[in-house]
Amino acid sequence: FNYTRKTLINNLDSLLNYASLCKDLDKEFVLKPEIINEDEYDLAYLIELEKELYGFYITNHPTFSYKQKERDIINLIDVEKYFNKFINVIVLVEKIKEITTKNGDKMMFILGSDEEMQRDFTVFPKEYEKYFTIQKGDIVKIFGKVEKRNGTYQIIVSKLWKLNAREYEENKNYS
Fold this sequence. Notes:
Blueprint: H1 5-10, H2 12-24, H3 43-54, H4 64-68, E1 86-100, E2 106-113, E3 118-123, H5 125-131, E4 139-149, E5 152-163, H6 165-170
Parallel strand pairs: 3-5
Antiparallel strand pairs: 1-2, 1-4, 2-3, 4-5
């Protein structure tokens, strides 16, 4: 239609009213609505709308652009190949579960995803104190060791960096 999605959504009521009136009256008697053009939504918002609507990402996974700028990032689908080794991954935090250990220390479990799959990450108490501000929806770079527990591969977090556009540009050379 040569309009941005934001323009169409924000003008939807007047467009539907126009269509409804044209159904019952001749088009020449109905005043055409004035469409107010708007810039497109930002890409991150459009990607989240895709996930909300379809249950998965169609355009790009939110981690895609960050992974393109890195050289040593492992895809989650390949984690098994690195059993008992340290790797770097970039993931979208899908879910966080915080628990208190028998000793009264806090730790957390993270479910993270990239373009291909989801994996579990464990953050033990020592690291938890450094990274407890991580939230669902954050994009993070994780350096950790691949381990297998109950037949499932997981990554034990040694270091974690929260990424966003500004922080990412300022901290490109972390490792």
